[in-house]
Amino acid sequence: MRSIPLKSMSGMFLMLLASGCSNSRHETTEHYYLVASNIKLPYWQAALAGLRRGAGDLKVKADMVGPDTYDPAEQRNMFRYIVSKKPAGIMVSAADPVLMKSEINAAIAAGIPVITIDSDAPGSQRLFFIGTNNYQAGIAGGQVLVQRLNRKGNVVVLTIPAQANLVERMRGYEAAVAGTDIKFVQTVDIHGDPAQAFDKTMEIITSGKQTVDGFVCLEATAGKEVADVLSRREIKGKVIVAMDTDDGTLDWIEKDSIAATVAQKPFTMAYYGLRTLDDLHHTMPAKLDMNWSRDLQSLMPSVIDTGSALIDRTNLNTIRTARQ
Questions:
Q1: Is 136 exposed, middle or buried (0-12, 13-18, 19+ CB in 10 A)?
Q2: What is the pLDDT at residue 181?
Q3: What is the mean pLDDT of the chain?
Q4: Confidence at residue 3, expressed as pLDDT on a 0 to 100 scale
Q5: Which CATH number is 134-263+312-323 given?
Q6: 59: left (phi over 0), alpha (psi -120 to 50) or beta
Q7: Cα separations (Å) of 7 from 3, 10, 70?
């Protein structure tokens, strides 16, 4: 066998190395999207930071789109437009899972991987869900409610009834207060609008129609609005349990007006979601429209739990330091 000179071997190795470095698995046209709603909220800005970090790590293009307000119909229209662009993959937080079901199924049928984050659409053909175990988040908030109310009292719930994640949180609260004398006496649909949370709380407080001992806020915007109303009216002794960690919510915890908030990880949801979409795009299953949840040898998980944490005055400074 004829030997190859060392000098020639070195040259060949360098050529192969250069070829390998330039031949990334990512194409220049590869583009991923996160479709959300109410995207100006601090919660979704945290998700956008995770998306951008993931895009930088993977060297791909990724954008977040969605209406600036809670508008499920507009979110559906934006999702439909993104599908028409034939992206490499889509993450969606379904404002209305019923409205989004057919749109997600159409994207899957077109060969576009779709996963849900934050708010699921379990009746659709989405591949899997990445986000909080919302039932357990409700349990955590409910335990605070039971302790602070000493197991009895009337509670108002501020929510968006169409969102699957908030429905699951409410189930957790109901389980946590079972066997106590805590009653959920009113449910208020704030439509994702902090102004409505403020106005409805003011109306409840000033009407005097019923005694209210506590407020449960199942989404990110309501907690600080409830606290603001009670502060303006100089009302003490009401228990508020909030959701998520925008600065206003944390400020009211520091003032001891909000008892606690249940924190999620939107940064992690978007970051890890992008990495899974990238992997799906490059190792695409032969079929996307399978019932993966019933396949005991499934290539897909059903749910990836990104975790949650309870924040109150005892750990507030630690959380703020970590965020900085």
A1: middle
A2: 98
A3: 91
A4: 44
A5: 3.40.50.2300
A6: left
A7: 12, 5, 65
Three-state SS for 66?
A: coil
Which one, of 64, 63, 61, 72, lies nearest residue 40 by Cα? 64
Terminal Cα-to-Cα distance of the chain (whole angstroms): 64
Rounded-to-integer distance, Cα 89 and Cα 114, Å = 6
Helix-helix angle 316-323:247-254, to 10 degrees: 150
> What is the percent of the chain where pLDDT is above 90?
82
Give the range among 22-26, 140-144, 185-189, 262-266 with minimum mean pLDDT: 22-26
User: Which numeric CATH code is attached to 30-132+266-282?
Assistant: 3.40.50.2300
Calculate the dihedral angle through the C-alpha atoms of 85, 75, 223, 240, rounding to the nearest 10 degrees: -110
Angle between helix 164-177 and 134-148 (nearest 10): 40
134-263+312-323 and 30-132+266-282 share a CATH fold:
yes
**Exposure letters 38-70 (e unless 16+ CB within 10 A, then b):** bbebbbbebbbebbbebbeebebebebebbeeb
Claim: this prediction has a pTM higher than 0.85: yes
Q: How many residues does the chain have?
A: 324
pLDDT, tens digit (0-9, with 9 covering 90-100), for 162-173: 899 999 999 999
Domain boundaries of the chain, sorted by first residue = 30-132+266-282, 134-263+312-323
Tokens of 179: 């066997």
**Which pLDDT value is given to residue 24?**
61
- Contact present, 214 and 240 (Cβ < 8 Å): yes
Lowest mean pLDDT segment, chosen from 83-92, 169-178, 314-323: 314-323
Here the tokens at position 285 are: 């299953």
CA-to-CA distance for 73 and 82, rounded, in angstroms?
A: 14
> Can you tell me the distance from the alpha carbon of 305 to that of 210, in angstroms, rounded to the nearest whole number?
39
